[in-house]
Amino acid sequence: MDAVLAVITAAAQVLAQEASGITGSINTVGYGLAAIGPGIGVGIVAGNAVQAMARQPEAAGMVRTNMFIGMALSEALALFGFVLFFLGG
C-alpha cells in the first residue's frame, strides 16, 4: 500500500510541476484525488461481485447487473472530477 501511495504522490508532484501557476497545481492535484476514490470503489465492487458469483453461481446474472450499475455510479464521480478539473483551470 505504501508503494501505491508513493507512486500517487510522485505522479501528483510531476503533474503539479507541469501545471501553470498555483491554480493549475491545485486543479491537477484535485483531479488526481478525485480519480483515486472511484478507482478504489470500482475495485471493491468488482472484487465483491466475483466473490458473490463464486459463492452462488445461479445468481451470477443478477450480481453482474448490479455490479455494472455500481461501477457506473462510481465512475460518474471520476467524470465529475474530470469536468471540474477543466472548468477550474
Notes on the protein architecture:
91% of the residues lie in helices and 0% in strands. The chain has one domain: F1F0 ATP synthase subunit C (F1FO ATP Synthase), CATH 1.20.20. It contains three helices and no strands. It is elongated, with a radius of gyration of 17 Å. With 89 residues, the chain is mostly helical. Helix 2 runs antiparallel to helix 3. The longest helix is centred in the middle third of the chain and has 35 residues.
Q: How many helices does DSSP assign?
A: 3
What name goes with the CATH superfamily? F1F0 ATP synthase subunit C
Order of helices and strands: HHH
- Summed up, the domain count is 1
- The assigned CATH architecture is Up-down Bundle
Please identify the top-level CATH class.
Mainly Alpha
Largest sheet: none
> What structural category do the secondary elements indicate?
mainly alpha
Features:
89 residues, mainly alpha, F1FO ATP Synthase, 0% strand
Layout of strands and helices, then pairs:
Blueprint: H1 2-18, H2 21-55, H3 60-88
Quick overview:
Helix content is 91%, strand content 0%.
